[in-house]
Amino acid sequence: MKKIFLIISLVICFLSQARIPGDSLYFPKPFKAAVFEDCDACGCAAGNGSSGFESLLNPQFIGVKYFAQHYKAKENLFVHDLTQDQYFNTLQLWGKIPVAEKLSVYANVPFHFHTKKTLQGDISIHGIGDANVMGIYQLINSGSSHQLNGGLGVKIPLGKFNEKGLSGVNPSFQLGTGSWDYQMMLNYKFQKGRAAFLLNTDYTVKTENRKHYRFGNQWNYSATGFYQISGNGDIIFSGKAGMQGEVYDRNRQFGEILPNTAGSALYGKFGFEAAYKRISLGNEIMLPVYSDLAGGDLEAKSRFSLFMNIGI
Prior knowledge:
Largest sheet: 12 strands, antiparallel, barrel
Helix content: under 10%
Shape: globular
């Protein structure tokens, strides 16, 4: 137990010193879950939506997920109010496949369709986003109570990066970063009876793209509680609630720091998960508790996700 929390503490300390301003795990019955959050469509850092695991009742799977985000931005620099609605929508194919006893590979390919409402009319972009691939290794498994997993991954720049999108308040209104980005993840699970508690932290190192633009590095962290409300044989239903935070470093162009590009946000979240045999279904609603993005020129409003998966 002490060894598990020592590793988590060391990783969190490392990330907190790394110049910054979801969870892959296995539940034995009655829970089986895998969670890894990687949301970098939030207004400061990148533009490829959310990619990663929601909590799942099937630990190995292929499936589809829809993810929606709403932000409010300052369109007119001479007006104090945040008047511009921005909607980030992502539909992604994803999967987590075992390749060895303690090693799994996670991958996803997203398709984005984003819209922002300006005084001159709506502006929309759509197309394939940046793909993600991550290897996830089981570091510690102490029976049915504790488990610790770590992961390393890469984001592949398949999404189009448009320099014109940098001129607005939110430079993340993009299909992709245009850069190869690298990810580190650590998550911990504690389970007792029908209840479970998950801690997750991940960090993304973003590199400069061909247009000499670099989005700020990103740190995500979350704590989520689960409780199995009902479950009999092939049917399981559980509720979940928790908190999730995100911290973004400043963007750079030609090596120069850009103002009003760093920020942070904290969300409360709740949702449900259900499974029938090999099919699992779940959703999550996230509402901001705290939002300080782009120097106050951008405000997080709400998020919603829905997924359906087939266990393999």
